[in-house]
Amino acid sequence: MLDFLLTGDAIMALLTLTFLEIILGIDNIVFISIAANKLPEHQRGKATNIGLVLAMIQRVVLLFFVSFLTSLKTPFYTVNLDWLHIAVSWQAIILFAGGLFLIYKSTSEIREKVETPNHDEDNIKSRKISSLSQAITQILIIDFIFSVDSILTAVGMTNGLHPNHNYALVLMIIAVVISIVIMIAFANPIRKFIDVHPSMQVLGLAFLILIGFMLITEAAHLSNTSIFDQTVGAIPKGYLYFAIAFSLFVEFLNFRVQKKQQQTKH
C-alpha cells in the first residue's frame, strides 16, 4: 500500500484531486455559510464546522458505494451488431453516466456563473432557518448535491491507477479528508481568494469537463467497445495531469501580470 501511495502517479493524482476537491468545495463553503449565517452568532461557527465534517463523512460513504459499483467489471449484457460491439458491465455504466453528469453539471455551472452568478445563493437565502437542527438538515442536503460531482471526479482521477481497487479507494479517501481539513482551517481565506480570482473556479469546472470526457472514453474502453472494427482506447491520465498543470501555470502567470499592472497604476 505505502509503495503505491509513494509512486509518481499516485502523488500526482492525490495533488490534482485535492486541488479539484477544494475548488469544487468553494460553492459548498459559500452555501454552508449562507445557511449558518441565519442562526444566532454563537451557533454559526458550530454549524459551519459540523456541515463540513458531515460533507466529509457523506463523501467517504459515497466513495465506498461508487467504488463497489465500479469494481463490478464482469459484463452482464453484450451488444453484438455488424458495426458495433459493447460488453456492458456496471463499471462501464457508472463511468459513462458519471462522465455525462460531469459534463452536464460543469457546463450548466459555467453558464450559470456567467449569466446568473447569484442564482443559487438567492435560492438558499430565501429559505427560512430558525434552529441549529434545521440549518444542519439544509447543510446535509447541500452537501449531498455537491458530493456527487466530487465523488465522480475522484473516481475519474484514480480509476485504473492500481489493479487492487482498494488502493485507489484509500487514495480517494485521503484526498477528500485533506481537502475538507484544509477547507475547515482556511475556509475564509480560500473563499476570499476565489472572490478575487473567480477564473480559478471556472478553470476547475473546465477540468471537470475534461474528466467527464475521460470517464466516457474509459467506460467505452473497459466495455471493449468497437465501432466499425475500430476499438476505443483509454486516455492516459498523464495527459490530463499535464493539461491541468499547464492551465494552472498559465493562470499563475496571469495573476503575476495582473498584480504588476495594478502596482504600476498605483
Automatic annotation (TrEMBL):
Membrane topology annotation: Multi-pass membrane protein
Gene Ontology cellular component terms for the protein in this record: membrane
InterPro entries linked to this entry: Integral_membrane_TerC, MFS_trans_sf
A Pfam family this chain is assigned to: TerC
Keyword field: Membrane, Transmembrane, Transmembrane helix
Subcellular location: Membrane
TM spans (from-to): 12-36, 48-71, 83-104, 135-155, 167-190, 202-219, 239-257
Principal location class: membrane
Family: Belongs to the TerC family.
Full protein name: Membrane protein
Species in which this protein is naturally found: Mangrovimonas yunxiaonensis
Lineage, broadest ranks: Bacteria, Pseudomonadati, Bacteroidota, Flavobacteriia, Flavobacteriales
